[in-house]
Amino acid sequence: MSSATETAPVKKEALGGAGSAGLKLMWFWDVPEFRRGMGLILVFGLSCFLLLPLLTLLLWAFTDEWRYPSVLPQSYSFKWWEWVFTNGDVGSAVRYSFMTAPVVTVLAAVICLPAAYSFSRFQFPGRRALFVSLLAANAFPRIGLYVAIATLFFRLNLMGTFWGVVLIQLVGTLVAMVWIPAAGFDSVSRELEDAARDAGATPLRVFWSITLPLAMPAIIVACFLAFLAAFDEAQGTLIVGSPQIVTMPVLMYTLVVNYPEPVGAIFSILLSAPSVVLLLLARRFLLAGYLAAGFKGR
Amino acid sequence: MARLQLEHLVKQYGRGGDPAVKDLSLEVNDGEFVCLLGPSGCGKTTTLRMIGGFLKPDSGDVRIDAQSVVNQPPERRPTAMVFQRYALWPHMTVWNNVAFGLQVRRRPRDEIAQRVEAVLELVGLPSLGRRYPQQLSGGQQQRVALARALVLEPRILLLDEPLSNLDAQLRVYMRSELTAIQRRVGITTVFVTHDQEEAMSISDRIAVMNAGVLEQMDAPEEIYARPATLFVATFIGTMNRLDATFDPSGWLRAGPFLLPVPSEMRLGPGQTVVAGFRPEDLELSASGEGVPATVESDIDLGHYRRVSLRADAASLLAFVPKALHPEPLAAPRVSPRRVLIYADGRLAGVIEPPAGAGDRTAQAVPAVVPRQSLP
Question: Label partner for A190 (CA 20 to 30 A): which of A26, B2, B346, B369?
Answer without folding.
Answer: B2
